[in-house]
Amino acid sequence: MERYYLDGIRVRLRALEPEDVEFLCAIENCPANWDVSNFSVPYSRYVMEQYVTMTQSDLYADRQVRLAIEHKERGCAVGTVDVTDFSPRHMRGEVGISLLREFRGSGLGREALLLMCEYVFGFLRFHQLQAHIEAGNTASLKLFRSCGFKECGVLREWWLSGGEFRDVVMLQCLREEWMHPHGK
């Protein structure tokens, strides 16, 4: 049986399409998401269109990949999952996920994150993934831990959010531990 890494039970991960521009603007232009990125101004529709058309959707060419999380039943994008800061030499990258507010807590994010892990560990043969999560974001910490990520450090006062510096928890998942969680 042929294996398709990016297709799950309720979601599929897919390349961005031109019709995703409005959705991307909604995700990127939400000020609550700016706290976990290096951006603090809205993106124009034109900039989002350029991004979608200019990206090669090739991890090796772009050193990052962003995939839409598509809700299979509804046939619409509900979030994104990214691998950034890809190092081909060390076979590692940083993973992040963002869901529209109304789909958070539904299990769709967990399924999408697991699909991305299957893809990068099983198909691309990454050695490790890492994630940076604000220490007070208990929902995201729970999500990543439930997918096999382990805390490996804390960056003190790393992100400025709401006028306060906040700690960031560093999480890491190694391929060998993810593929064989019980030493099998």
Question: What does this entry look like structurally?
Answer:
With 184 residues, the protein is an alpha+beta fold. It has helices spanning 21-28, 31-34, 45-54, 59-62, 108-123, 138-146, 175-179, and strands spanning 11-14, 65-71, 76-87, 92-99, 128-134, 150-161, 164-174. The chain has a single domain, classed as Aminopeptidase (3-Layer(aba) Sandwich). A seven-stranded mixed sheet has the order 1-2-3-4-5-7-6. Helix 5 links the parallel strand 4 (92-99) and strand 5 (128-134). Helix 1 crosses helix 3 (45-54). The longest helix is centred in the middle third of the chain and has 16 residues, at 108-123. 26% of the residues are buried.
Strand content: 25-35%
Number of helices: 7
> What order do the SSEs take from the amino end to the carboxyl end, as H and E?
EHHHHEEEHEHEEH
Structural category is: alpha+beta
Over the alpha carbons, how many angstroms does the gyration radius reach?
Answer: 16 Å
CATH architecture: 3-Layer(aba) Sandwich
The N- to C-terminal Cα distance equals: 23 Å
Number of strands: 7
Chain-wise SSE layout:
Layout: E1 11-14, H1 21-28, H2 31-34, H3 45-54, H4 59-62, E2 65-71, E3 76-87, E4 92-99, H5 108-123, E5 128-134, H6 138-146, E6 150-161, E7 164-174, H7 175-179
Parallel strand pairs: 4-5
Antiparallel strand pairs: 1-2, 2-3, 3-4, 5-7, 6-7
In short:
The protein is of the alpha+beta class and 184 residues long. It contains 7 helices and 7 strands; from the N terminus they run βααααβββαβαββα.
